[in-house]
Design goal:
heterodimer, A: about 350 residues, mainly beta, Jelly Rolls, 7-stranded antiparallel sheet, 3 helices, about 10% helix, B: about 100 residues, mainly alpha, two-stranded antiparallel sheet, 2 helices, elongated, binds fe (ii) ion
């Protein structure tokens, strides 16, 4: 059942626990924010104690992190608060350490926290997806109107990661002092937020302070919104963000999803009818011929159909053939590319 | 719904499974506490709903960005009879 609705929660209300999973060195403590009960994917506030040191290695899961306080040394790079990392599954990070200790928000997206000591990337790692940025110093604030209808103008964002296929996003957002937005919103995606600093208010859940957190499944009402003194937070969605605004505080998630479907019917009636009338019970949706069509390649007659469950990786991108050992690049269905040597 | 990006298959050691079980149990307790707190907030929330209705009928409802539209009193929703005020939905559309 994926992750349950955890809202509101404040990590300041609980103590740290020692991380005991194999691979993580002593001196790592954590507070669990939310956990996917099927996959073990989770978000945690992590305290690395002064002197902490973790050997180079990778996670079996895709991972994101942002420094909340203090300094984290990643290889030869000193990362201060606001430094964000997107780390694909199997991507080997260099040694990480901290002299004085630091607080980091750590998110494992596709599986439980894991650390395999290695100085090499796993062969399946989509290494080109890795990126990191000092989001406080090196990115400008942009208007929050990444989607229409949009949030009010006092909500600004810095986009940190974007999946071009699912439209899932990771972003910093801030609310200016005196911010308010008088509508109730819900989305067709799950939404997550961690308050790095400051307090905001929502009509359903009250105040979310520094260290405040939510994981909210799709179709759950939230808002109106306000922030008296402003706030800065890390936000994520797990697919396309669309703001379904309304003013009925008593609508249920089922009524909300029905409204979403009704709006889809009004906007794209042919597509809606096709989806309903055709018996396409493939668990991952209808076929996209761009993923599956036979391509000319170098040889003829091979099977070009991908067999991915969305987790495992078996060349579900277009199928190219190469001379054994020759360097080449694959383009994935999620719009990313990676190379093999 | 959850992230659908790459995950590399691997075996879970018994201590990892044990850790997951304990974390799931603790999350269950955390969830119950939140659900209770949000039920207790219901009387305050009633006032917040009324203040929201007051604002959207006088100052306006945010339709898109800062574009506002005043909602007439006649268009305000009626709370369905017998429906309790509920804001926490454990599994979203699949909640009990
Ligand atoms: Fe939202």
């Amino acid at each position: 059942m994926a992750r349950p609705h955890i809202e509101p929660f404040c990590d300041r209300d609980t103590g740290f626990k020692n991380m005991i999973l194999p691979g993580f060195a002593g001196g790592m403590r954590y507070k669990m924010l939310s956990l996917d009960v099927d996959s073990g994917a989770c978000s945690m506030t992590v305290q690395y104690d002064g002197g902490y040191r973790r050997a180079p290695g990778f996670s079996w899961s895709e991972m994101e992190m942002i420094v909340i306080e203090g300094e984290l040394q990643v290889g030869d790079r000193t990362c201060r608060k606001g430094h964000y990392f997107f780390v694909p599954a199997g991507y080997a990070l260099p040694e990480i350490s901290t002299a004085q200790g630091c607080l980091v928000l750590v998110m494992y997206n596709t599986g439980e926290p894991s650390h395999e000591e290695s100085t090499e990337h796993h062969p399946l790692a989509q290494v080109d997806l890795y990126h990191s940025v000092d989001s406080y110093m090196d990115l400008p604030w942009a208007m929050g109107n990444v989607t229409k209808p949009s949030v009010a103008a006092g909500c600004l964002i810095k986009l940190l990661n974007y999946n071009p296929i699912s439209h899932a996003m990771t972003f910093l957002y801030c609310m200016t002092p005196g911010y308010y937005q008088d509508n109730i919103s819900y989305h067709d995606c799950a939404e997550e937020s961690y308050h790095l600093w400051g307090t905001s208010w929502m009509m359903q859940f009250g105040e979310v302070p520094t260290g405040g957190y939510f994981w909210r499944p799709a179709y759950i009402n939230h808002g109106a919104f306000a922030s008296e003194y402003g706030c800065i937070a890390l936000g994520r969605t797990d697919s396309k963000l669309f703001n379904h605004f309304h003013y009925n505080p008593w609508s249920t998630p089922v009524e909300n999803v029905e409204r979403s479907a009704a709006r889809l019917y009004k906007r794209d009636p042919l597509l809606y009818k096709w989806c309903l009338s055709k018996d396409h019970n493939h668990p991952h949706g209808p076929e996209d011929f761009e993923d599956t069509m036979q391509r000319r390649g170098d040889e003829q007659g091979h099977d070009t159909e991908h067999k991915s469950d969305g987790k495992t990786h078996d060349h579900w991108h277009g199928h190219h053939h190469h001379e054994p050992g020759s360097p080449h690049t694959h383009t994935h269905a999620d719009g990313t590319t990676h190379s093999h040597d | 719904m959850t992230f659908k990006n790459l995950f590399i298959e691997h075996d879970l050691a018994p201590e990892v499974r044990q850790w997951l079980e304990e974390e799931i149990a603790e999350q269950e307790e955390r969830f119950k506490l939140i659900e209770k707190e949000m039920q207790d907030l219901a009387p305050t929330r009633e006032k917040w709903y009324q203040e929201f209705f007051d604002r959207i009928t006088t100052i306006g409802f945010n339709v898109d960005g800062d574009d506002k539209m005043k909602i007439s009193q006649a268009d305000l929703p009626v709370k369905p009879e017998g429906r309790e005020d509920r804001v926490v939905w454990k599994h979203g559309v699949d909640s009990d």
